[in-house]
Design a protein that fits this description.
This protein is α/β, with parallel strands linked by helices and about 350 residues long. The protein is about 35% helix and about 10% strand. The strands form 3 sheets. A 5-stranded parallel beta sheet has the order 6-7-8-9-10. α5 runs parallel beside α6. The protein is globular, with a radius of gyration of 21 Å. The relative contact order is 0.13.
Length: about 350
């Protein structure tokens, strides 16, 4: 089975929209080792491509999501989470949902300029932006490119509220901008995603994301900066990490979180087989048990896309997961939502015009 070191996808499935598919030779690495015993396997490098999109804000009207508008600087995600529901989006770009999703990253280099234009447009009505509702805005490539940070600089200039969702400690780099928006205008909040506290599980399930301990430290750092922080237990995977709910919520509360939410694992399109392959490789004795438990929450299927059911599932097991979360969240005082983000301070801003009384960050 093709699985580059340090990557989450254990295979490279065909793009469902393409007739041509390149299948890596599973014996290539072994053949190379035999031919040259001293040759070390080459790690799969991440390739970055430019996205020439003319918009950077996406809108949403799904009835089961609170997200009305989102800001997405990247397509694809280096974190390589084996369960990621966003993987099939890469197929619309001509790539596959497996290795391509985590090694071929599409970046919106001009995202800050596009964001400035869209926020300045008369049709823009101030509203919170979620960054990001699809792929992580603080994935490793952000450390070098700083596209998310430059977008935050724009949002700070416009005083437009933003909610961050990430599983990377790198978000603490921008505590200055987020703290300024939060303290001065009640216009920033951060949710750190922690599906598991098990370092070994996290390393294989989310190979390029920050460790669970680093994410807890991020919660603490942001909370100390005056930023409202919460924890996302997404996803709950029955039979794999659902038993960790109380421990994660306690740890998050101990590190400054004041709110929490969860979603049930979603396995659309090719992600079903990708995740099953991941289980075969890392949890072979538990594969059938875990998949059967997921089916138990999805009317006998591995995925259900219906609104109001896709996020939480249905049936007795789904209800047990919900009850455990509800009781644990209340016990650790994480059952309340974060304060609503305010748009009261929003203002149009021309970056070519210097401010008469600039605010110090």
């Amino acid at each position: 089975m093709f699985s580059p070191k340090g990557r989450g996808a254990p295979s490279s499935p065909p793009n469902r929209f393409e007739s041509l598919h390149i299948e890596p030779d599973p014996n290539a690495a072994e053949d190379l080792r035999i031919a040259d015993p001293d040759a070390a396997p080459r790690p799969l490098k991440t390739n970055v491509y430019r996205d020439d999109s003319q918009t950077v804000i996406s809108t949403n009207n799904s009835p089961d999501l609170r997200i009305e508008a989102s800001l997405n600087p990247y397509r694809g995600c280096e974190h390589g989470c084996a369960y990621c529901y966003a993987r099939p989006y890469h197929e619309y770009l001509g790539f596959n949902a497996g290795i391509d999703f985590e090694s071929r990253i599409i970046v919106k280099e001009n995202a800050p300029e596009l964001l400035t234009h869209e926020l300045n447009h008369p049709s823009w009505k101030p509203k919170p932006l979620v960054c990001s509702g699809v792929t992580d805005p603080y994935q490793p490539v952000e450390r070098k490119l700083e596209i998310t940070r430059r977008c935050l600089e724009v949002l700070a200039a416009f005083r437009n509220p933003v909610a961050i969702i990430t599983k990377n400690h790198l978000v603490t780099r921008d505590a200055d901008l987020l703290g300024h928006l939060a303290r001065e205008y009640e216009a920033a909040a951060v949710f750190i995603s922690i599906p598991s506290l098990d370092t070994k599980l996290s390393t294989t399930l989310e190979p390029r994301a920050s460790s669970p301990n680093a994410r807890l430290k991020a919660l603490e750092t942001l909370a100390r900066a005056g930023i409202p922080v919460g924890v996302s237990l997404a996803p709950r995977i029955p039979g794999l990490n659902d038993h960790e709910t109380p421990a994660i919520l306690k740890a998050a509360a101990d590190h400054g979180a004041t709110s929490a939410f969860y979603t049930l694992v979603r396995l659309p399109h090719g992600v079903k087989q990708l995740f099953a392959n991941w289980l075969d490789r890392h949890r072979p004795r538990e594969t059938n048990k875990i998949l059967d438990r997921i089916r138990e929450t999805r009317h006998g299927k591995l995925n259900e896309s219906r609104f109001n059911s896709r996020m939480r599932g249905s049936g007795t097991l789904a209800q047990e997961i919900a009850t455990l979360f509800k009781i644990s969240a209340k016990r650790y005082r994480l059952h309340q939502s974060l304060p609503p983000l305010s748009t009261a301070a929003f203002r149009r801003h021309d970056p070519r015009q210097p401010e008469l009384f600039p605010t110090e960050l």
